[in-house]
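R.M. (postdoc): so does anyone remember the format we settled on? I'll just put the structure tokens first.
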């Protein structure tokens, strides 16, 4: 026994240390996903619970204190890493005048009561303590600076110490005054700061997601992600079109009149700021609880998302007495509403095959009403998720619809599991074509590798090919693709250009007009520029932006096909994973056939002459570029060779006109060049040849 209790003492200590380290890592990752990528991977509730657990563990182990722990700082949403980037892109980073803290939060009414007791105790028995209750808006916080009554800066929270100045985007929000009206100048001092929440109202959120669905872009999971993604856009006109709004809830600065938080908010409201009316000065625990209960249901009628109630000590002098911890004020706390959840039974797990072959398991459940909508399906993400739920056939599952629009299974109910229930087994062969699935190490998804023969992958690739941002072919929606696929007219993207007008016109519901329109759409698509054709090919990991960058570095399909993985990684933002995927796609025999057929159909497989042709001085010359350069990147030199009529060759041969050599040219190339007597040109000599002055 003695022995056991000794182990009991040591074991938890060791595992708690590990747990602390693991939680810190996990929470940092979530902070990054949430604030920087606007794509959280864990629910708010899970995040809050993990943070809470970390706080408890850190308190128990002061020897493991780390100022860098996520409990000690707020998550960072900073987009730029330096101050204003050279190209003028990104946002200028500016230090906050007052650190931008977050709020302690809880889901427990008891903890709200405990907090109130701590407040009363901290105020040493002062009577008549007032608590202002407000709604907790679920957007992203913003700090607005006014100087001489004019809006001059708008900083995101950033890391709490510095934020991105997004003032140009904020100026597009109609409810934020650019300037305090002259007749209101007396109510606010000339210089002040006001903080609040930027939100995307439900109405606009729904509209944008509908549009994104039509454009086949990923949907925003909730209005908060949509708002934060919007505020990080670099083009204010795009921001304006999204329709952001803002509620303000905190006034700061020197010489601001008023002795209470509530008074200051009313002044701000008079000065033209949107301050919510859902606000109440409470004088007892009961009043606070009433406010919370009332708004837990009533909030569903509001035009914007809210996720709780914020409680703040009203008197500024009392706020000061209570002070701050490293991360949060002691004079405020947030009560978060629990996400609505329901228990329902799992009927089956089915599997969807995406355009890239990724298999997504889907739970089919007994339909259940959740936040006003009937829910019967929920994604199970991947095999690991199913394992972590310990999902068994016929299980009762908890379904939640919180801040997220898409319902989620958050847990199974073990007490309702039948004794003989079997664990859900992830499939090992493709449900559509029977091919054995593969799972690449480090990836969560299982995939069907039969990309050229698996029906949903074939159809998905065609849908992508004809979509608006790719070839933009009118008259070929997903239903038509399905139909033509079933008829055996379409197997891959190249077949699109071999559709027969008369066959289509003869189909019920089509006729000459539809067939004409489709033929016209196909004809017009032949003018779509090379970068979009490249995007349309549907190479894994090659989105619109990457396609543009690749097309710029490799102005023709032939050049791109000749590029090695190493060369491809030299293109901006192209990492090894993308480079490997491009090379594998282009080296695949089936794909080569498709590309040749597309070329024969008349698609733009190279940048148009006018765009790139500068002279014919290198006409007909095959040139090899090797080494590291001073004035231009290797890709720029390749583009220059093309622009002057030359051809880029991957390896040295007797046909090579010359080698453009930088520092550290590959020894094998050098040896071969010497053997074959191929001329070697330095950077300066080359630039002279094409009559270009070097730009240092
Ligand atoms: S007051 C020092 N009031 O919630 C106190 N914050 O989880 C500053 N939030 O970072 C915050 N509604 O972005 C306050 N009525 C409200 C709020 C609110 C939403 C956000 C804010 C804050 C976060 C903390």
């Amino acid at each position: 026994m003695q022995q056991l209790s000794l182990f009991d003492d040591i074991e938890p200590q060791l595992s708690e240390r590990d747990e602390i380290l693991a939680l810190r890592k996990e929470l940092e990752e979530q902070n990054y996903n949430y604030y920087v990528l606007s794509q959280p991977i864990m629910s708010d509730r899970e995040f809050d619970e993990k943070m809470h657990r970390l706080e408890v563990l850190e308190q128990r182990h002061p020897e493991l204190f780390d100022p860098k722990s996520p409990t000690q700082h707020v998550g960072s949403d900073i987009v730029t890493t330096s101050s204003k980037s050279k190209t003028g892109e990104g946002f200028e980073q500016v230090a906050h005048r007052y650190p931008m803290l977050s709020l302690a939060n809880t889901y427990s009414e008891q903890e709200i009561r405990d907090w109130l007791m701590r407040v009363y105790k901290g105020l040493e028995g002062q009577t008549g303590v007032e608590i202002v209750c407000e709604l907790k808006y679920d957007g992203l916080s913003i700090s607005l600076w006014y100087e001489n009554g004019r809006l001059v800066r708008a900083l995101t929270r950033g890391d709490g110490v510095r934020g991105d100045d997004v003032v140009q985007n904020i100026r597009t929000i109609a409810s934020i005054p650019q300037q305090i009206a002259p007749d209101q100048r007396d109510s606010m001092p000339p210089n002040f700061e006001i903080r609040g929440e930027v939100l995307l109202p439900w109405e606009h959120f729904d509209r944008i997601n509908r549009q994104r669905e039509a454009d086949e872009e990923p949907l925003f999971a909730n209005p908060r992600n949509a708002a934060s993604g919007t505020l990080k856009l670099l083009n204010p006109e795009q921001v304006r079109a999204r329709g952001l709004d803002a509620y303000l809830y905190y006034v700061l600065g020197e010489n601001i009149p008023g002795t209470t938080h509530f008074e200051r908010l009313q002044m701000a409201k008079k000065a033209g700021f949107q301050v919510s009316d859902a606000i109440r000065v409470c004088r007892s625990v009961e009043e606070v609880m009433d406010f919370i209960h009332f708004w837990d249901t009533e909030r569903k009628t509001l035009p914007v998302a809210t996720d709780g109630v914020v409680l703040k000590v009203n008197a500024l002098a009392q706020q000061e007495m209570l002070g701050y911890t490293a991360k949060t004020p002691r004079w405020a706390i947030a009560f978060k509403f629990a996400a609505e959840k329901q228990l329902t039974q799992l009927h089956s797990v089915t599997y969807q095959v995406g355009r890239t072959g990724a298999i997504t398991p889907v739970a089919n459940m007994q339909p259940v009403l959740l936040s006003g909508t009937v829910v019967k399906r929920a994604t199970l993400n991947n095999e690991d998720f199913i394992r972590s739920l310990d999902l068994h056939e016929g299980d009762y599952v908890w379904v939640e619809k919180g801040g997220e629009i898409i319902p989620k299974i958050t847990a199974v109910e073990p007490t309702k599991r039948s004794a003989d229930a079997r664990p859900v087994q992830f499939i090992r062969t493709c449900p559509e074509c029977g091919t054995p699935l593969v799972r690449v190490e480090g990836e969560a998804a299982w995939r069907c590798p039969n990309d050229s023969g698996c029906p949903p992958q074939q159809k998905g690739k065609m849908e992508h090919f004809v979509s608006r941002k790719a070839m933009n072919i009118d008259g070929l929606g997903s239903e038509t693709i399905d139909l033509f696929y079933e008829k055996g007219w379409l197997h891959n993207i190249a077949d699109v250009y071999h559709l027969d007008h008369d066959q289509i016109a003869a189909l019920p519901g089509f006729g000459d007009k539809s067939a004409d329109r489709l033929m016209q759409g196909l004809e017009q698509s032949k003018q779509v520029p090379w970068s979009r054709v490249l995007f349309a090919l549907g190479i894994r990991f090659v989105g619109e932006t990457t396609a543009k960058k690749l097309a710029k570095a490799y102005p023709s399909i032939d050049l791109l096909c000749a590029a090695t993985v190493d060369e491809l990684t030299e293109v901006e933002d192209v990492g090894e994973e993308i480079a490997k995927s491009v090379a594998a796609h282009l080296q695949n025999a089936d794909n080569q056939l498709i590309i040749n057929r597309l070329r024969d159909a008349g698609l733009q497989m190279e940048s148009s002459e006018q765009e790139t042709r500068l002279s014919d001085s290198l006409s007909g010359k095959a040139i090899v570029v090797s080494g590291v350069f001073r004035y231009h990147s290797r890709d720029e030199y390749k583009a220059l060779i093309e622009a002057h009529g030359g051809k880029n060759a991957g390896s040295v041969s007797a046909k090579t006109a010359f080698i453009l050599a930088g520092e550290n040219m590959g020894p094998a190339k050098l040896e071969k060049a010497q053997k074959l007597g191929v001329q070697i040109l330095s950077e300066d000599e080359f630039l002279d040849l094409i009559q270009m002055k070097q730009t240092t």
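R.M.: ...and that's the designed sequence above, right after the tokens. Also worth knowing: The longest strand covers residues 340-353. Residues 2-36 form the longest helix (35 residues).
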